[in-house]
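Hi there,

I know you've been waiting on this one. I reran it after we fixed the sequence typo, so this is the corrected version. Both the input and the resulting structure follow.
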Amino acid sequence: MNKRKDPAKSGNDANLGFEAKLFKAADKLRGNMEPSDYKHVVLGLIFLKYISDAFEAKHQALLAEDPQVAEDRDEYLADNVFWVPAAARWSYLQAHAKRPEIGTLIDEAMRAIEKENDSLKGVLPKDYARPALNKVMLGELIDLFSRIGLKDAAHRSKDILGRVYEYFLGQFAGAEGKRGGEFYTPRSVVRVLVEMLEPYRGRVYDPCCGSGGMFVQSEKFVQEHGGRIGDIAIYGQESNYTTWRLCKMNLAVRGIDADIRWNNEGSFHKDELRDLKADYILANPPFNVSDWGGERLREDVRWTFGVPPVGNANYAWLQHIYHHLAPNGTAGVVLANGSMSSNQSGEGDIRRAMVEADVVDCMVALPGQLFYSTQIPACLWFLARNKNPGGGLRDRRGQVLFIDARQMGVLVDRTRRELTDEEIQRIADTYHAWRGTVGATRRSPLPEYADIPGFCKSATLEDIRQHGHVLTPGRYVGAAQQEDDGEPFEAKMARLSAQWRQQREEAARLDAAIEANLKELGF
């Protein structure tokens, strides 16, 4: 049985002690304010601190080199640094944090930054002056966040602010419950997708990108494997305007340049990136959406494998994603477990067509309680345009890998589970061993792939046909092998039978003793 772990000490968050303490202090200042409102207050200030720190670091470096170029905006743009006017800099706000008009000063700072930086227009929160917002609390937050990055080199300060922003996003998602889950995919789930797909270079796309967690983890992967920010080109769409703003700020805090489109019609009805063919697609679409407007898209070119039902968007998402894959592209998609076996409204026919077209590469069953927004069990679909692309990958045509990870994960609180670093690596390594991955992203050679009963199975298309094209991993991986303790079967049965009889006799003796005690007490 897994023991409960402190998220600040778990394998996935081993270095989050500072962020956890900071969030606790910030949350204490929240008072009676709703997390959904407080989130924007706090994240906006962290963003302001980030761009101000980055600007000040560049400003000081330029002053040391040549004071005349310190006011040249092109010098900052060339280094992907936002221009921050004097009255919008953190040092100015910190000096005025105790003034009653601090809310107005923050709003003016946000407007000034948007005016000077086209990519931030309409992104930043500008309602700090509203009467309902406690101005003393604002000043205390400024003092609190002023501690971030002090006595650190500029790059270290940026890294800390990025970690703080990411940690706060996750904590607010947890506090908001279902609403929070709409903009945030748990970090361990994103890491499984990234470690399996290995988006090392090329075009990365998310058609429902939320707060941008898929992109942040993809950039981290590139950097951890010797690449650079910019080795991947990032594209995304988001229909919720507030969430789109969070995404833009999240990526800016990380110094990530991206083409993120907002449209309130959504990716199905207004495909802003209609001609994009991505090398990697990572997505966590909303589960089982019934009001996606499918009745207006009966003849859409994206429905390669069949027209998705109007009452559930799961197979619309899968086909939209497949449509946007490049010739050798791969995709990882989070969906509800029902997508693996449902036969309602033609979903089974679409799934059969996808299997027979050999576009399903791998299926992963996830443990429960991973998500903030739903208790619905989830799975991962991995799609591939070409299962024999060369480049070090083996020919996987006619095969699908099934991984059953339902028994993995550790509880980080009473309601939520996370996958550990070791578990994520085991899942990813199994996939790469099966796929035959080699190249720059491999730290060391992987062992040759082998089926492991109860965990993974490489199945043929004929195997899948025999299961009626159901893609639930549990149907294929079988039961885990029991360790052989060396005791002969006959001897074990005799021992266990004797133990069972002994326990029955003991139970009868205890029942008689209890009955006698009750009679003595007059019952």
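Quick highlight: The longest strand covers residues 325-336.

Best,
R. S.
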